Amino acid sequence: MIIARTATHLASELDALRFKNGAQRCVSLVTTRGGFHDGHGTVINAADTVSDIVVVAVAPEPNQKNGNLVTASEFQDISFLENHHVDLLYAPADDELFPHSFEFMIGVAQPHACDVVDVGAYRLTQHLKLINAVLPNIMVWGEKNFVEFHSVRQMINNLDIRTQIQCVPTLRHADGVAVSSAAENMTAAERANLPILYETLNNVAHAIRTGARTFSNLEKTARLALRGAGLQIQYFKILDEENLGAASEKTTTYRILGGVKLGNIPNLTDPLTQQPLKSLLNDKQRAQRLQHQLAGIWFDFSKQWVDGVVLDGLTALAHDRNVMSQAKAMLAGEAINLSENRAVLHSALRGGAPAADKDMQDQVNKTLSRMFKLEADITSGRWRGYTGKVITDIVHIGIGGSHLGPELVVNALVDHKTNSLRIHFVANIDAAELTRTLALCQPETTLFIIASKSFGTLETQVNAKSARSWFLERTGSLEGIAKHFVAITTNLSAAKAFGLDEANLFPLWDWVGGRFSLWSAVGLPILMSIGKQGFEAFLAGAKEVDTHFATAPAAANVPLLSALLATWNYNFLGARSLAVLAYDERLKLLPDYLQQLEMESNGKSVNRAGERVDCATMPILWGGTGTKGQHAYHQMLHQGTHEFTADFIIVAQDEHNYPEHHNWLLANALGQSQAMAIGHLPAENEPHKAVAGNHSTTTIVLDALAPRQLGALLATYEHKVFCQGAIWDINSFDQWGVELGKRLAEPIYAQLAGHTGQPATQDLVTQHLLDHLKNKKR
Ligand SMILES: O=P(O)(O)OC[C@H]1O[C@](O)(CO)[C@@H](O)[C@@H]1O
């Protein structure tokens, strides 16, 4: 590689390179400031592919007399360029480019609207001088320096310089951080926060791609997210690619520029923007926007790490994403489940979708009446088993949406039981569950409820078959089936083929998603447990939420706010899990139920148009009951390295009349959420006692754990899931991901069951496992 330090030396070397064997060769120029890294490498490689001769210029800083390259790293820089097959390095000192007698500078006549980074007369003149010295056919830039690239491009166009100019995409680390000398020289703590910049750029790009056009709000929200992550913003702009002016409705190509400063980061203490959560907690205004009463529940979002500006930004985001007009379409019965071409009308099961088809509502009411009759017949003893005995045990067989909701509600409302029926649930294909349950039951006094929307789900089929065999082996009475088996399904013919009596079949409809079906006949165990009045109150609580959701303004719409705050936590503050912390033992199954509701609904990675989403979607939802969790996983929440958000669910009334227990239970819930918000700064010599704080949490206070409140709580989560999906532009109502594993299990089962003639189709690793299991099986 030739190294030239003066314009004269450069000219003579370049002439020789440019004109070889009588032919003129193509020269490219890459201008840099030295300190080379792989990011430069991609630009130089690109220059190499479009030209015969690559010249790299290292532009000096003002008054940089002797350091033609960046000081101490000169040696590394030269070998880096040689390794990248650069032909010529031009490294003039500042006084070579700008001698004392120099009196002219070139400037921009009309500064562009973007005030991102001022390229300035010095740099522009320097670029012009480098271009004049090298006379390149083409200049190649890295996109990371887009503003400077744009200014030079304008200069080339406006001054009729006969050089082409192009830029190449930014090289990024696996976590999205642009490769740069700054990124290499950061402390681990500074570096850890940086991926949020790329994520935020992507979030905004995604928002624009999917129709968001309130640019100032998008910028505001993005800035807050960056500050929230402890980054000092240099600039964050949504611009028109063409002229780098502010983006407008007319913009066809957008350029989103974001830059952050590092070093001496004030870590969320900038009073003009985001303050530590601790300092927000005493703001009297918070209650108004962040505490809401709905259907016997107090939703308290005031421990969320947001302020008014963030809330405005989030509300604008909902508007941009048309969340509420999509909700309207859902409640009107439009087929918003695109991949299955189905309506999503579980609200109609509780009278919460008045615009839904009349016929649909009639079917719902008719089925409800039949459910009430069955419950009354069983609990009054009018319905008897085949030997005339009253029913004492209900065994509900179903899985996923046909199980989780009913079991949760039956357990949670145990204090609202109206009769002595014992209700059991069998979901797993593991026979442990079925056999243990059957061991508690007598065939003459047991009613089996088989709940399966499809009536084709493996677990339910196998369990139902075994339950029927258990019954027949003990009773020998085929006619007895009619007294001991009922089913809920959309697939009535499959249920009949199973041998079930038509009169014992309760319909379900394709417009009810499995995980939203507990309000239908799938909820029969709930009805059997809490009776007609209780079940009606449960539906009514959910309907109150439907009405609120459809009519409340965005800023006070509880399900929408929940979803927006979740977005803020997941997509802007980097929370990767949602902990559901129920401070009531009766709600032990709530996290399991919500796992299906939220994760099966929104665990998606393509949008509604089938394109890959470019933002994180549903994080991991998990949880348990307080105070037990405090002695298990709360340590990690307080001092671990994962960002999270949590929902605290508490019940205000002491329903067991044990005041000491109840007061401690509530005190612990509030103490935990307070600790998560305010953290603890220990003495300098006790870093192990530091608690970071600044974790957003929501506190949900049920007046009582009663049917109305529980119905309202679950419906709120349902609508939150809908809003979340609308914000992410994903279909929350299908679940294609569960199919592959099911399919792969089939040939494995055939081998385990010794079905002959089935060739092994598995990979070697799976085959070895299978052989091992076959050997070990008795
Ligand atoms: O009610 P079915 O058709 O038996 O389905 C049970 C569950 O299986 C799934 O299809 C997949 O897990 C769930 O969505 C559904 O709730």
From TrEMBL:
One GO biological process term: glycolytic process
Any one Gene Ontology molecular-function term assigned to this protein's record: glucose-6-phosphate isomerase activity
Pathway: Cofactor biosynthesis; (R)-pantothenate biosynthesis; (R)-pantothenate from (R)-pantoate and beta-alanine: step 1/1; Carbohydrate degradation; glycolysis; D-glyceraldehyde 3-phosphate and glycerone phosphate from D-glucose: step 2/4
InterPro entries noted in UniProt: G6P_Isomerase (IPR001672), G6P_Isomerase_C (IPR023096), Pantoate_ligase (IPR003721), Pantoate_ligase_C (IPR042176), Phosphoglucose_isomerase_CS (IPR018189), Rossmann-like_a/b/a_fold (IPR014729), SIS_dom_sf (IPR046348), SIS_PGI_1 (IPR035476)
EC category name: isomerase
Known EC number: 5.3.1.9
Reactions catalysed: alpha-D-glucose 6-phosphate = beta-D-fructose 6-phosphate; (R)-pantoate + beta-alanine + ATP = (R)-pantothenate + AMP + diphosphate + H(+)
GO cellular-component term (any): cytosol
Parts forming coiled coils: none
Key words of the record: Gluconeogenesis, Glycolysis, Isomerase, Pantothenate biosynthesis
Family to which this protein belongs: Belongs to the GPI family. Belongs to the pantothenate synthetase family.
Name of the protein in its database record: Glucose-6-phosphate isomerase
Originating species: Symbiodinium pilosum
